[in-house]
C-alpha cells in the first residue's frame, strides 16, 4: 500500500463491561469510516482501571484469551471492517494473571499474544498485585497493513522496548495506556513527560508511533484519579501529527507511507551503525557484571566496560 492510515481512540470507561466494549466498537467504526487500517483502543478498556487498589475480588475480571468478550467482539469487528485491532485485556492463564494484548489481523484472526513486560507499582497504579511480568518477550506482527509492534502502558517509558520492536522489523509502534493523576502527588502532571518520552522513541527509531489513553474521573477506595487523555500520533521524526485533548472522547488518524519511511530509515544508518558488542551494560540491572569489588582487572577497565578496550590497559 502507498499509505497506511493509523488511528488512536480515546474514551472514558464505566462499570458496565458490555457498554464499554460497545463504545469501543463505535469508535473503531468511526475510525474505519475515516479510512483507518490499524485502530488502537486504549489499555484495559473493558472497565475502569481496577489497579487503583489492591482488591482480590478484581481477579474475577480476568479471562483466558479464548473467553475474553473484548477479544471476541473486536475479532468479529476486525473481520467485518477489514481493520487491524490490538486488544488489551486482563488475562488468566491457569493460576497466573497477565496484562495482555491480543493482535487481531484485518480478517479477524487472532495472530498472537503479548504479555506486558514492565509492571509498575505505586499509589494508584498497583499493578504488581495483579499481574505477573510478561513471558512472551517483545513482539511484532506482520499484519495485512504492515508490521506492527505493540507495547503496553509502562512499556512506553523504556527505550529498550521500542528499539527491540524496531529491530524485529516494526513499521509502526503502538502503545495502549491508562495514565493520569498521581494520588500521592496531586500537583504532578506527567502528560508532557509522557508525550515527549514516546516522541523520542519515534525519532530514535525513525518510526511512526500511536498512543491511546483513557479520559475521565475514576474512584478508588479513598481517592479519585483523573485520566488525562492526550492520546497522540507521532511521525518518524518524533513530530506530533495529531493529539487529542484531556477530556473528550475522540478518534485521531494519520497516514504514513511505511515503504518510504523504511527507505529513509535505511538511508540514515541508525541500525547499520549500532554497536551491540558495546551494549552489555543493558543486560544488567546496574550496568556492572557482578558485585562491587569483584573486578580483578586492576590494569584495565573490565571485560564489559563499554569503552571498547576489551579490559586491556
UniProtKB/TrEMBL annotation:
Domain CN hydrolase: 4-258
One Pfam family cited in the UniProt record for this chain: CN_hydrolase
InterPro entries reported for this sequence: Aliph_Amidase/BUP (IPR050345), C-N_Hydrolase (IPR003010), C-N_Hydrolase_sf (IPR036526), N-carbamoylputrescine_amidase (IPR017755)
Keywords: Hydrolase
BP-aspect Gene Ontology terms: putrescine biosynthetic process from arginine
Gene Ontology terms for molecular function: N-carbamoylputrescine amidase activity
Gene3D superfamilies: Carbon-nitrogen hydrolase (3.60.110.10)
Similarity field: Belongs to the carbon-nitrogen hydrolase superfamily.
PANTHER family associated with the record: BETA-UREIDOPROPIONASE (PTHR43674:SF2), NITRILASE C965.09-RELATED (PTHR43674)
Protein known as: N-carbamoylputrescine amidase
Amino acid at each position: 500500500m502507498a499509505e497506511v492510515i493509523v488511528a488512536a481512540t480515546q474514551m472514558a470507561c464505566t462499570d458496565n463491561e458490555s457498554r464499554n466494549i460497545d463504545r469501543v466498537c463505535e469508535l473503531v467504526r468511526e475510525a474505519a469510516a475515516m479510512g483507518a487500517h490499524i485502530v488502537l483502543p486504549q489499555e484495559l478498556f473493558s472497565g475502569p482501571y481496577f489497579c487503583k487498589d489492591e482488591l482480590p475480588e478484581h481477579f474475577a475480571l480476568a479471562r483466558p484469551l479464548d473467553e475474553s468478550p473484548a477479544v471476541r467482539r473486536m475479532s468479529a469487528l476486525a473481520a467485518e471492517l477489514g481493520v487491524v485491532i490490538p486488544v488489551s485485556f486482563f488475562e488468566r492463564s491457569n493460576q497466573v494473571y497477565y496484562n495482555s494484548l491480543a493482535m487481531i489481523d484485518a480478517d479477524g484472526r487472532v495472530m498472537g499474544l503479548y504479555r506486558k513486560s514492565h509492571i509498575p507499582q505505586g499509589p494508584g497504579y498497583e499493578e504488581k498485585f495483579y499481574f505477573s511480568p510478561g513471558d512472551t518477550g517483545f513482539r511484532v506482527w506482520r499484519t495485512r497493513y504492515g508490521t506492527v509492534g505493540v507495547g503496553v502502558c509502562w512499556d512506553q517509558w523504556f527505550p529498550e522496548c521500542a528499539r527491540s520492536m524496531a529491530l524485529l522489523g516494526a513499521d509502526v509502534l503502538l502503545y495502549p495506556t491508562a495514565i493520569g493523576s498521581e494520588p500521592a502527588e496531586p500537583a504532578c502532571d506527567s502528560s508532557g513527560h509522557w508525550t515527549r518520552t514516546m516522541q523520542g522513541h519515534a525519532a530514535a527509531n525513525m518510526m511512526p508511533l500511536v498512543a491511546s489513553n483513557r479520559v475521565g474521573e475514576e474512584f478508588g477506595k479513598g481517592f479519585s484519579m483523573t485520566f488525562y487523555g492526550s492520546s497522540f500520533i507521532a511521525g518518524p521524526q518524533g513530530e506530533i501529527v495529531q493529539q487529542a485533548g484531556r477530556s473528550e472522547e475522540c478518534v485521531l488518524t494519520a497516514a504514513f507511507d511505511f515503504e518510504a519511511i523504511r527507505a529513509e530509515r535505511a538511508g540514515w544508518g541508525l541500525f547499520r551503525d549500532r554497536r551491540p558488542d558495546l551494549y552489555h551494560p543493558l543486560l544488567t540491572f546496574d550496568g556492572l557484571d557482578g558485585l562491587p569489588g569483584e573486578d580483578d582487572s586492576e590494569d584495565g577497565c573490565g571485560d564489559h566496560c563499554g569503552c571498547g578496550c576489551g579490559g586491556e590497559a
